C-alpha cells in the first residue's frame, strides 16, 4: 500500500491515491457498467459536502475491489493509520465480486450525489445561506446573531470546514442587521480547539504544504476576529481548549458557566500560542500569569479566568443560559451604530498590532507543526484514543 499517512483520510487523497487501473471488461453488460463506473468516479469529484470518513473508506474499498479484486496485501503496521484504515475497509468487503463492488460503488456515489441535491435546492430557493452550514447553526433573533458551534460529538473541535464556516458566518453577521453577535457551543463543551485530525490530512504535496495551508487558514481565521466590526460575545457553555481559549482575548465580552475550564496545552502539543494570545494574555493578566497558561499548560477554572480578566462574568451552571440571555437581550436593544462605532474605536487602537502578532504567531506555528515534538504529540493523542 502507499506511503504512511496519519488517520484522517480526505477524499482528495483517496482519489489521488488510486493507482491507474485498466479495467479488463468484456461483453455488453459489463461495458455499460464500466461507463457508469467512470461516470461515478467523475461525479465523486463534484461532491460538495464531506461524506465522512467511514463513507470515504467504503468508497475507497469498493473502488479497490472493483478494480483489483479482494484484498490480498499484508495488513499495514499499527502506526500506519491511514493505510491500516484503508486495508481494514477493503478487507471487510470479503469475497464480493468485482462486478458487485462496481455496482455498489456506483450506487453509493449515486446516493451521495442525490442527497446533496435537496440541500443545494433549499439554499437557492430559500435564499438563506445560513441554512447551508454543516458545522454550525447560525440564527438571528431579537437583534442577536448566534453562531452555534455544532459538532457536539467531537466536543466542537474545529475542523477545516468549520474554520471556513465560522469565517463565513462572521462575515455575514458583520453585515447583517443584528446588534450583537454571539458565539457558543452545542452540547457539554464550548469547544475543544483545533481538530487534531486537521494535521493528519497529508496530501500528495506533503507536510510542508499542509503546514503552509494551515498557517494561511489560521491567519485568515484570526483576522476575522480582529476585524469583526460589532460587539462579539462568547457564551462559554462548558470547557474550552486551545484556540477556543486563546481567541477569547479578541472577543468584547466573555460570559462563562462555572462548569467551564480554560486550557491551552501548547507546549504539551509541541506548538506555540495563537489567536494573538502571546500579546493579549500578558497585556490582560500580566506576563507571569500569562506564562503559566501559555507556557506551562495551566488549566484555569472559570473563577480564575474571571479574576485574570479573560472572562467578564461567571454564572452558576443551572441558571447560566437564562441569566446570560436575559442580559444579551437587553444589550441588543441598545443603539446599533453607537455600539459598532464604540467597539471600532476601542479595537482601532490595537488593530495593526494584532495583525502583526497574528502573522508572527502563524509563522512560528508553521515551523512547530513540522517539528517532531508536535507530530509525536498528535500521534499520541490518536493512539491513546485508538483512532481509526
Ligand atoms: C488548521 C490548523 C489551525 C491550527 C490552530 C492552532 C490551534 C491549536 C489548538 O487548538 S491546540 C488544542 C487542541 N485540542 C486538544 O488538544 C484537545 C484534544 N481533546 C482532548 O483532550 C479530549 O478529547 C477532551 C479533553 C477535549 C475531551 O475529553 P473527553 O471528555 O474524554 O471526550 P473524548 O476525548 O472522548 O472526546 C469525544 C470525541 O471527540 C473527539 N475530540 C475531542 N477533541 C478533539 C480534538 N481537538 N480534535 C480531534 N478530535 C477531538 C475525541 O477524539 C472523541 O472522538 P471519538 O468519539 O473517539 O471519535
TrEMBL record:
Record EC number: 5.3.3.8
InterPro entries (alphabetical): Acyl-CoA-binding_prot_CS, Acyl-CoA-binding_protein, Acyl-CoA-binding_sf, ClpP/crotonase-like_dom_sf, ECH/Chromodomain_protein, Enoyl-CoA_hydra/iso, Enoyl-CoA_hydra_C, FERM/acyl-CoA-bd_prot_sf
Record keyword Aminoacyl-tRNA synthetase present: no
GO MF annotation, one: fatty-acyl-CoA binding
CC terms in the record's Gene Ontology section: mitochondrion; peroxisome
Compartments where located: Peroxisome
Catalytic activity: (3E)-nonenoyl-CoA = (2E)-nonenoyl-CoA; a (3E)-enoyl-CoA = a 4-saturated (2E)-enoyl-CoA; a (3Z)-enoyl-CoA = a 4-saturated (2E)-enoyl-CoA
Source taxon at top rank: Eukaryota
Protein name listed in UniProt: Delta(3)-Delta(2)-enoyl-CoA isomerase
Cited Pfam families: ACBP, ECH_1
Alphabetical UniProt keywords: Isomerase, Peroxisome
Top-level EC class as recorded in UniProt: isomerase
Species per Swiss-Prot/TrEMBL record: Callorhinchus milii (Ghost shark)
Domain ACB: start-end pairs: 33-118
Amino acid at each position: 500500500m502507499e506511503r504512511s499517512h496519519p488517520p484522517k483520510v480526505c477524499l482528495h487523497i483517496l482519489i489521488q491515491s488510486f493507482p491507474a487501473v485498466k479495467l479488463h471488461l468484456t461483453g455488453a453488460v459489463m461495458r455499460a457498467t464500466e461507463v457508469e463506473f467512470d461516470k461515478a468516479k467523475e461525479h465523486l469529484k463534484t461532491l460538495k459536502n464531506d461524506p465522512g470518513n467511514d463513507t470515504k473508506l467504503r468508497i475507497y474499498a469498493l473502488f479497490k475491489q472493483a478494480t483489483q479484486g479482494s484484498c490480498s496485501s499484508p495488513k499495514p503496521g499499527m502506526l500506519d493509520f491511514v493505510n491500516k484504515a484503508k486495508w481494514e475497509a477493503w478487507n471487510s468487503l470479503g469475497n464480493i465480486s468485482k462486478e458487485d463492488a462496481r455496482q455498489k460503488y456506483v450506487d453509493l456515489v449515486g446516493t451521495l450525489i442525490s442527497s446533496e441535491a435537496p440541500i443545494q435546492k433549499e439554499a437557492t430557493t430559500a435564499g438563506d445561506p445560513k441554512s447551508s452550514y454543516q458545522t454550525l447553526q447560525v440564527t438571528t433573533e431579537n437583534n442577536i446573531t448566534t453562531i452555534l458551534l455544532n459538532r457536539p460529538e467531537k466536543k466542537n473541535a474545529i475542523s477545516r470546514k468549520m474554520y471556513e464556516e465560522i469565517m463565513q458566518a462572521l462575515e455575514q453577521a458583520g453585515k447583517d442587521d443584528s446588534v450583537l453577535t454571539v458565539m457558543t457551543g452545542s452540547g457539554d463543551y464550548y469547544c475543544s480547539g483545533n481538530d487534531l485530525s486537521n494535521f493528519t490530512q497529508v496530501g500528495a504535496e506533503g507536510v510542508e504544504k499542509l503546514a503552509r495551508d494551515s498557517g494561511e487558514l489560521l491567519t485568515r481565521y484570526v483576522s476575522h476576529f480582529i476585524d469583526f466590526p460589532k460587539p462579539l460575545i462568547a457564551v462559554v457553555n462548558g470547557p474550552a481548549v486551545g484556540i477556543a481559549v486563546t481567541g477569547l482575548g479578541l472577543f468584547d465580552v466573555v460570559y462563562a458557566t462555572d462548569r467551564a475550564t480554560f486550557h491551552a496545552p501548547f507546549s504539551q502539543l509541541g506548538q506555540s500560542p495563537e489567536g494573538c494570545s502571546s500579546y493579549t494574555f500578558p497585556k490582560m493578566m500580566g506576563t507571569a500569569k500569562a506564562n503559566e497558561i501559555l507556557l506551562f499548560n495551566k488549566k484555569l477554572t472559570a473563577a480564575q479566568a474571571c479574576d485574570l480578566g479573560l472572562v467578564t462574568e461567571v454564572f452558576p451552571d443551572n441558571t447560566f443560559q437564562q441569566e446570560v440571555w436575559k442580559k444579551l437581550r437587553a444589550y441588543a436593544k441598545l443603539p446599533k451604530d453607537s455600539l459598532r462605532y464604540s467597539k471600532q474605536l476601542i479595537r482601532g487602537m490595537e488593530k495593526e498590532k494584532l495583525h502583526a502578532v497574528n502573522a508572527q504567531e502563524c509563522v512560528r506555528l508553521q515551523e512547530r507543526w513540522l517539528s517532531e515534538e508536535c507530530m509525536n504529540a498528535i500521534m499520541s493523542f490518536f493512539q491513546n484514543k485508538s483512532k481509526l
